[in-house]
Known about the structure:
The structure holds two protein chains of two kinds. Chain A has 17 helices and eight strands. By secondary structure, chain A is α/β, with parallel strands linked by helices. Chain A folds into two domains: 227 residues, NADH:ubiquinone oxidoreductase-like, 20kDa subunit (Rossmann fold), CATH 3.40.50.700; 142 residues, Cytochrome-c3 hydrogenase, C-terminal domain (Cytochrome-c3 Hydrogenase, Chain A, domain 2, Irregular). In chain A, the strands form three sheets. Chain A has a four-stranded parallel beta sheet with strand order 1-2-6-8, sandwiched between helices. Chain A has a two-stranded antiparallel sheet with strand order 3-7. In chain A, strands 4-5 form a two-stranded antiparallel sheet. In chain A, α4 packs across α10, α6 packs across α7 and α15 packs antiparallel against α16. The N terminus and C terminus of chain A are likely disordered. Chain B has a single domain, classed as Cytochrome-c3 Hydrogenase, chain B (Orthogonal Bundle), CATH 1.10.645. The two termini of chain B are 43 Å apart. In chain B, the strands form four sheets. Chain B has a three-stranded antiparallel beta sheet. A three-stranded antiparallel beta sheet of chain B has the order 7-6-8, with no helix packed on it. Chain B is an alpha+beta fold. In chain B, α5 crosses α7. Chain B is globular, with a radius of gyration of 23 Å. Chain B is built from 17 helices and eleven strands. At the A-B interface, α1, α5, α6, β4 and β5 of A face β1, α1, α6, α7 and α8 of B.
Amino acid sequence: MRPRRYFTRARPQKMPLELETLPKEETIYDQIIARGVSRREFLSFCAWMGACIGVQASGIAQVIQALETKKRIPVIWLHFQECTCCSESFLRSSHPIVADILLDKISLDYTETLMAASGHQAEQSLQDTMAKYKGEYLLCIEGSVPLAEDGVYCCIGGKTAKGIAEEVAEHAKAIIAWGNCACSGCVQAAKPNPTQAMPIKKIIAGKPIINVQGCPPIAEVMAGVLVHLLTFDTIPELDNLGRPKAFYSRRVHDTCYRRPNYDAGLFVESFDDENARKGYCLYKVGCKGPTTYNSCGTIRWNGGVSFPIQSGHPCIGCSESNFWDNGPFYQRLPSFPGFGIEATADTVGVAALGVAAAGVAAHAVMTNVRKRHEIGEQPGENAEKADAADAASRGNNPNS
Amino acid sequence: MSTRIVVDPVTRIEGHLRIEAEIKDGKIVDAWSAGTMVRGLEIILRGRDPRDAWAFCERVCGVCTTVHALASVRAVEDAIDVRVPPNAELIRNIMFCAQYMQDHVVHFYHLHALDWVDVVSALKANPAATSTLAQSISHWPKSSPGYFSDIQKRLTKFVESGQLGIFANGYWGHPAFKLPPEANLMAVAHYLEALEWQKEIVKVHTIFGGKNPHPNYLVGGMPCSININEANAINAERLAMVGDLLKQGQRFIEQVYIPDVLAIAPFYLDWAGIGGGLDNYLCYGDLPTNGFSDVGSYKFPRGAILGRNLSEVHPVDPRDDTGIQEFIDHSWYEYDGGAAGLHPWKGETNLKYSGPKPPYDFLDVDAKYSWLKTPRWKGHAMEVGPLARMLVGYASGNAEIKGAVTETLAALNAPPSVLFSTLGRTAARAIESRLAARWGLEFYDQLLANIKAGDTRTFTRDKWEPATWPAACKGVGTSEAPRGALAHWIVINDKKIANYQLVVPSTWNASPRDAKGQRSSYEAALIGTPVHDPQQPLEIIRTIHSFDPCLACAVHLYEDNKEIARHELLVN
Lengths: 400, 572
């Protein structure tokens, strides 16, 4: 005989409580004030957030105005193959009212959908939210989706991750892919990718997807992307890899406070050597800062306390696709066409000042050209000059 | 006639867990625990540079971040036979203690407390009486009637707005809630304070490891250099900040967490007789004070207890291939040659799904039903975690652990037998949080003393180059993750990883039964648990939460629904 089935928290009369009773016209500002946050704190938050997402001082008023008058955006937050580091990072947001505001903002529907604790009840709640806010909700996804063996490597409530992702994405307004798992598959997609773990962009088509890269992304970057959406009702400007330019248009190398050491040819040769104790450049012990686009050098981590390079470890490039398979972490970046940093570093390390300066200048030009390609900027008036410099820098192998 | 209930997903845990339970006459008569997601990290690690393994392993779990990195660097260091400098060991120990402090506090307040605390009841509390209660148990300064009144007003406004968020689907009013309104209000206030506090203590990881989650480690030491005369290194300012964070953390644990546990526990003494489960406990031990290879120097001693016999602690050797073995009789794997159980050095990870085709309603629990393998020690099912650590420490006669356990039992006026229970597990976690906070400061003082004496080394280059390694070697790195005994086994051939196996705490606790039908910890602990209302299985959640499940680790992958719990909390 088939056993009778119950589920946790099966209190149907309670389920729709929030959605039924929440005044839909309530603004973000109303909610914040209702939580006991003062207007002064609110304004300070707006200014901080505006600075965080790169808004000019004159634009702060727009942030304030938007948060005062905008209705909340319903958010559904799903989890697939991941380690929860993205959620954990988000909870470490340094500004004291980020959690209050943003999590409260998203928790309403998020809680409605995910907090409903069990199989069919959770599914019913999810269906209700999707129906009620059809085409309006923001879908946040943490984790990759395995396609091998028809998806049996990731099932929730008996359903595959792929099935859930497709169903919920269909009527989403936009999708945020949190972290390297959702953006490019991360560690489970490293060779040989046994479960055929796929990023969200390979699963969902026809929807705007914002790739918030990193393993995990920096908390303030996550908050900044959400505030941008809340404030401007637009998708932030993205690079060719779908990453918001506000946070991913600069290489860690270019914003690194140890960069002057690189430029001066001062390198750590081995961990904890004399040079390491002086805080020299970590390039020779494998730093991937020169090929990694992220905000670690500017925003830093956990309230600006430090970031990997500051604490003596090379950047491992965790905001780049397939970084797990881009060579061992402690092997210095190889020289390859259009990059040439290896030769430059060695040259700089032993060269006389004049030679070093020339090498560094060439390096700067080359990396700017690469960056322009990477982030998809249109060639400007200096493009020809830069391309020429790029070609020149490749020396006797211009076609490589 | 019995009733089958399915709880999937279980919330307020780390990872995805499915429980199926058979209920008869208001009690659970049988239970099955299943992990339904896998990533195959052990397969991905093959062929890679062993010095990189820690970073891959660290991504097993972003909640108990650091623990897999630590076990991994130890496994490699064991294999290539290198001993890290004392400062590196101290820094690792300090980070370990900070992890315990953060993880245990978050577990108690944000993952477990709502099993014991009725949030809606807090609305009826008298703030002045709450203040009196708080001041009677602690010197924590946030305890005035006005403070609790403000919290209550916020809560009231919150509830009246209809936006109950996380609290909307709670089991409020369930007869299993026993706390008076004032205790509930105090707990809600501390729940919010803990949420703010947890952001601070992890900065210890950021200073030494560059970021959290997922700070950096290094085979042969730690990557952060010490130079008290340099802005770009661990200097006096950085060290002072670590000391301050550790002291603040200790203050929170001593003045908020511990008093709350002691105040809440007396209302739930019936749970000292529920959820005991297995009779066997395993602990690898951790916090070396004289090098990882000197097991006798560990602050948490190593050992096993069988049949709840606290007069004998059995030695445990993770290298013994007849000791720890993993079985797959009910797990979706296959072994080449069809071996029954394999020691991890010979372990295999060959995924072989044979469960129902999704979408499905039920797993076939008579056949294979989980992505977790089933580990056994000398054939015994073992519980791991805070309770195992405290019992092994107590039974070993470790003065600090025995003292802390005895003190807590005296405060509760309870005999040691209450420890073998759901409540005992929760109490053990609180007891060892005190120890971790105390030891973190001890290690910090030693680090300062070393630096003062002129030793600033944090890394040894002796075996960094693979050319210095033997052609073939193998190692094991053990640790005590917050959730229990953790070990990584590595086999290195030709400077590359030939085999890598992880046996993690929730694999011990949450695994399916073995060929002999022996249940693992979760399944065993649920037997006999009363269930007042099958539609509101609060009691199941209580016992499962007392283990602090971490399914991401257990199947080396992760998925759903723990952060829900953490996020929900922020609603207020």
